[in-house]
Structures are given as structure tokens and as C-alpha cells.
TrEMBL record:
Coiled coil feature spans: 23-50, 86-113
Gene behind this protein: LOC106010104
Designated name of the protein: Golgin subfamily A member 2-like
Record keyword Membrane present: yes
Transmembrane stretches, start-end: 130-148
Organism name: Heterocephalus glaber
InterPro entries assigned to the protein according to its UniProt record, in alphabetical order: GOLGA_cons_dom
Length: 161
């Protein structure tokens, strides 16, 4: 009877010899998840490298922009200085032109006096005065017309005519 009792135990309760189908399926899913995780990690590493590279480029470009802004600021300051120097020079030229006009008026007056004066010695003195005034007028006219621009402006060898 013992034999019958041993046979009464159903064989299905015994553990299978290899992994079950469910275990194989879980193992396969686990491998797929590991592979996907590796892909995501690689993508993150690539994105991190790109982000670092972009950060470096951004810093470099910010430095370049700051240098260019400094350069523009210096150039603007130089332009203002040049404009101020040019304005001063123009005022000097106007003043010279005004003085030249005054000298010309004086010359006309001296010539009129010389012609009106009957005394030969006074006429001779008036002539000398007119000649010296003529020299002054010519010199002043040359200075007014042909003075090169100031070296402060950085422009050389130019003459106004």
C-alpha cells in the first residue's frame, strides 16, 4: 500500500527542471530595460558634452562682445574729442578771418588818408604804413586760407582753399 500512497502525490507539484516561461519572459524584459537605460545614459552624456560646449562658447562670445563694446566706446570718445578739436579750429579760423577783415578796413582807411594828404613826407609815411599793413594782410590771408588742420585732429597735409 505504500506504493499506492506514493503514487497518489500528483507529479505537477514537483518543481520544473528549468526556468519557467514567465521567468524567461521577465529575464528578457529586464535585458531590454537595461539596454534602454544604457541608451538613455549615452544620450545624457552626449547632451552634457553639448551643453558644456555651448556654455564655453557663450562665455567666449560674451567676452568678445565686451571687448567690442569697449572698442566702440573708445571710438566714440575719440570721435567726440576730434569733433571738439575741429570746432575749436573752426572758431580760430573765424577769429582770424574777422581780424583780417579789420586789417583790410584799416588798410582802406590808410590808403584814403595817404591820397588825401598833400604833404609828401606824410604821404611817404602813409605809403610805408600801407606797405607794412599789406604785408600783414597777405600773411594773415595766407594763414587763414592755407593753415593745415591741427595735428590734434590727426589729419596732415590738407589745405583749405
Amino acid at each position: 500500500m505504500d506504493l499506492k500512497a506514493d503514487m497518489a502525490v500528483p507529479p505537477a507539484l514537483q518543481p520544473p527542471a528549468g526556468p519557467s516561461e514567465e521567468q524567461l519572459q521577465l529575464k528578457c524584459e529586464l535585458q531590454q530595460l537595461k539596454h534602454q537605460l544604457e541608451l538613455v545614459l549615452e544620450e545624457l552624456k552626449t547632451q552634457k558634452k553639448e551643453t558644456c560646449s555651448l556654455c564655453v562658447r557663450t562665455v567666449e562670445q560674451a567676452e568678445q562682445l565686451a571687448q567690442m563694446q569697449d572698442s566702440v566706446l573708445r571710438q566714440s570718445e575719440d570721435n567726440l574729442k576730434m569733433a571738439s578739436a575741429l570746432q575749436s579750429e573752426q572758431l580760430e579760423r573765424k577769429e582770424l578771418a574777422r581780424k583780417l577783415g579789420q586789417l583790410q578796413e584799416k588798410m582802406v582807411q590808410l590808403m584814403a588818408l595817404r591820397l588825401e594828404n598833400p604833404d609828401p613826407r606824410k604821404r611817404q609815411a602813409g605809403r610805408r604804413g600801407c606797405l607794412s599793413l599789406s604785408c600783414i594782410l597777405i600773411s594773415a590771408a595766407l594763414v587763414t586760407v592755407s593753415v593745415p588742420p591741427s595735428p590734434r585732429l590727426g589729419v596732415h597735409h590738407l589745405k583749405r582753399m
